[in-house]
Specification:
The complex is a heterodimer of chains A (218) and B (219). Chain A is of the alpha/beta class and 218 residues long. Chain A is built from four helices and 13 strands. Chain B is an alpha/beta fold and 219 residues long. Chain B has two domains: 144 residues, Glutaconate Coenzyme A-transferase, CATH 3.40.1080.10; 34 residues, no CATH class. Chain B contains six helices and eleven strands. In chain B, strands 1, 2, 3, 4, 8, 9, 10 and 11 form an eight-stranded mixed sheet that branches. Chain B has a three-stranded antiparallel sheet with strand order 5-7-6. The chains are: A alpha/beta (218), B alpha/beta (219). At the A-B interface, strand 4 and helix 2 of A face helix 5 of B.
């Protein structure tokens, strides 16, 4: 089965981010989206540790230990950016001011429940960070993940088995196989990778999918 | 390119509908966006609910909006001042409704709206006329009152400098309610003395980041 690479998936997500959007990219794979934002669009990246207008990684030797992103990696500030304290930063998230957040996930359910902070395993150390605030606060919650686990199990499920990050929060799922909207009538497939049929996608997905509208079929 | 600056005061308030709830910045006249208020008077929206610390001074700005009979209700902490005669007369004639809110609760209710807080407990007002009928809870042995957020359709605020991204800095004590109101309205319109180039405002000193601001207009 043909799959998008992590970079191709990041580029696919980036394509849907419009001019002027205020966006938070979660740690892990979503961070890659920053590398593929269209250069002709002005997009404002928010970082939970108090940055708006975050820029790319600095040149080697230019790193500033006081200027890092949520993943604690060195970043830069673009002209027109600003710094603020943590509660103000989370007010941007919780108050519904961010247009988009892109989050990784362990599982997403049919109703848009998100599990991405804790495996629930007996020896796992729970670490939530800003995940719950982003999931309830951003106007649009996009999930970006591999369609299947390493063991080949569907990460899209009828009901999450992992502990939830938030209930019914996900708007759209981007995987290495498909783009899927969470809608009141179910998980509607918008796009599939070249060569993949709806039947094949459904076969590897452990939740009922709604086929793409006829006019979108290749 | 993102450009939040608008060409005229008229355009900045053109879509305020009748019946809107409007936060207006300022503490007395300091920080009051009087040019935006004049534009709103000319625009003609009526039946407004206005949230401001006071209820107008003299005959200009908010007082002029009241005098033009555009305000159905004032939500404020301190309407009665030496020069609040326009409001005083309307209130005594029963022509304007009044909700008085302790000033800290006013600011915090606005902040709560902007920060996505569903409600908060505060000791301010407990046992008084201004907390009658409100839910209470004993927290750490002290009685508290449950207060709900205040949101608005528009916030009209005044800042000193802004850029096309909506970043704002204020001047002296005219800052007052501006930053918090900017976070709490569906559409925040900032009247500024000057629009500066992107990058001209010190990122350490931006008081209102552009994410909270939708329109910037020079006045």
């Amino acid at each position: 089965m043909k799959r998008l690479t992590r970079e191709q998936l990041a580029a696919r997500v980036a394509r849907d981010i419009p001019e002027g959007a205020y966006v938070n990219l979660g740690i892990g794979m979503p961070t890659l989206v920053a590398n593929y934002l269209p250069r002709d669009r002005e997009i404002f990246l928010h970082s939970e540790n108090g940055i708006l207008g975050m820029g790319p990684a600095p040149a080697p030797g230019e790193e500033d230990p006081d200027l890092i992103n949520a993943g604690k990696q060195p970043v830069t500030l673009l002209p027109g950016g600003s710094f603020f304290h943590h509660a103000d930063s989370f007010a941007m998230m919780r108050g519904g001011h961010l247009d988009i957040c892109v989050l990784g996930a362990f599982e997403v359910s049919v109703s848009g429940d998100l599990a991405n902070w804790h495996t629930g395993a007996a020896d796992a150390i729970p670490a939530v960070g800003g995940a719950m605030d982003l999931a309830i606060g951003a106007k649009q919650v996009l999930v970006m993940m591999e369609h299947l686990t390493r063991a080949g199990e569907s990460k899209i499920v009828e009901r999450c088995r992992y502990p939830l990050t938030a209930v019914a929060c996900v708007d759209r799922i981007y995987t290495d196989l498909a783009v899927i909207d969470v809608t009141p009538v179910g998980l509607r497939v918008r796009e599939m990778v070249d060569g993949l049929t709806f039947a094949e996608l459904q076969r590897v997905t452990r939740a009922a999918l709604v086929p793409p509208p006829q006019d979108m079929c290749a | 390119m993102v450009n939040k600056t608008v060409a005229s005061l008229q355009a900045a308030v053109a879509d305020v509908p009748d019946g809107a709830t409007i936060m207006i910045g300022g503490f007395g006249v300091a920080g009051q966006p009087s040019a935006l208020i004049d534009a709103l008077i000319a625009q003609g929206a009526r039946n407004l609910t206005v949230i401001n610390n006071n209820a107008g001074n003299g005959e200009r700005g908010l007082a002029a909006l009241l005098k033009a009979r555009r305000v159905r209700k004032m939500v404020c902490s301190f309407p009665r001042q030496a020069d609040s005669f326009v409001f005083d007369a309307l209130y005594r004639a029963g022509e304007v409704e009044l909700e008085v809110v302790p000033q800290g609760n006013l600011a915090e209710r606005i902040r709560a709206a902007g920060a996505g807080i569903g409600a908060f407990f505060t000791p301010t007002g407990h046992g008084t006329l201004l907390a009658e009928g409100k839910e209470t809870r004993l927290i750490a042995g002290r009685p508290h009152v449950l207060e709900y957020p205040l949101t608005a359709d528009f916030a009209l605020i005044k800042a000193h400098r802004g850029d096309r991204l909506g970043n704002l800095v204020y001047r002296k004590a005219a800052r007052n309610f501006g930053p918090v109101m900017a976070t709490a309205a569906a559409c925040t319109v900032a009247q500024v003395d000057e629009v500066v180039d992107v990058g001209a405002l010190d990122p350490e000193a931006v008081v209102t980041p552009g994410i909270f601001v939708h329109r910037v207009v020079v006045a």
